[in-house]
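Allow me, if you will, to draw on your knowledge of protein folds for a short while. I have a record of one protein: its chain in single-letter code and its fold written as discrete structure tokens. I remain grateful for any guidance, and I place the record below:
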Amino acid sequence: MNILVTGGAGFIGSHTVLKLKEQNHFVVVYDNLSKGYKELIFSDEFVEGDIHNKELLKEVFNKYKIEAVLHFAAFIEAGESMQNPSKYFNNNSVGTLALLDAMVESDIKYFIFSSTAALYGYPDEIPIKEDTALHPVNAYGESKLIVEKFLKWYSDIYGLKYISLRYFNAAGSDEKLRTGEMHRPETHLIPLAIQAAFGEREKMYIFGTDYNTKDGTCIRDYIHVSDLASAHILALEYLVSENRSDIFNLGSEQGYTVREVIDVVKDVTNIDFPVEEAPRRPGDPETLIASSQKIKSVLTWKPLYNDLNKIVSTAVQYYKKWKNIS
């Protein structure tokens, strides 16, 4: 197929482009490079553009005879979304609406959406299922929930078929070290701990040590980014074969505390680094663990990386390559 990948110069987008190329798809990356990197572009063609630019999108759709869109172009920092919600609603919601309109006007029917576990807020049940109540506690999660609402109506009215993939915590790196996590700024736990290990930051902070967990710190579900990228290929194949919209969680179904993650980084790097305890942050749920039974059953998704040490090891190897550390 001829596929457009928005945000394809970013962390998850670039991994998915590599998977698409392995399947012999023709891939066009569309990215404004506000968060992405040119060195992470592995597509057949690259167009520097913004998702608000509907006319440029339609030109690209026509020029490359695009048949499906995988949409990763979003701002993802939950904390920042509570300081600048306009930025998140304008890009993540309004920008995606422009993209969807360009697709409808160009008669493109297949759409894979990069959604988030932030839709669940403080979840009513653990593990979290796709029908768990949705009540985001930050503007980032709300901006993605708005898009899921768009998608239901666009599917019902225009016949656009979509799959929304609700990610938990993506981490790690492509084993060939072609691409990895390079956020600006970095806000994710594993890369922050790696930065602390190699002296890029002075210390590591733990926000909240009084949660009702085994060591008092939050529990999160980490999924290797290559397993996540593979799920997008299966989602696209399902859309084309079944022509049916659906929603799936994407997680490992395992939970690790913040302290456990930091300890694994210390073990993998063989470097001790200072860790400072700090008060809880608002909007941090105690435990987030996915149920991925639906995607395993319907899409026959089989994650290959179920070990946190392996996930962290690939992240460390990519960081050392990126920073030229021997």
Observations:
- The chain has a mean pLDDT of 96.
- Residues 2-171+222-250 form a domain with the Rossmann fold fold (CATH 3.40.50.720).
- The chain has two domains: 2-171+222-250, 189-220+253-322.
- Residues 85 and 139 are 6 Å apart (CA to CA).
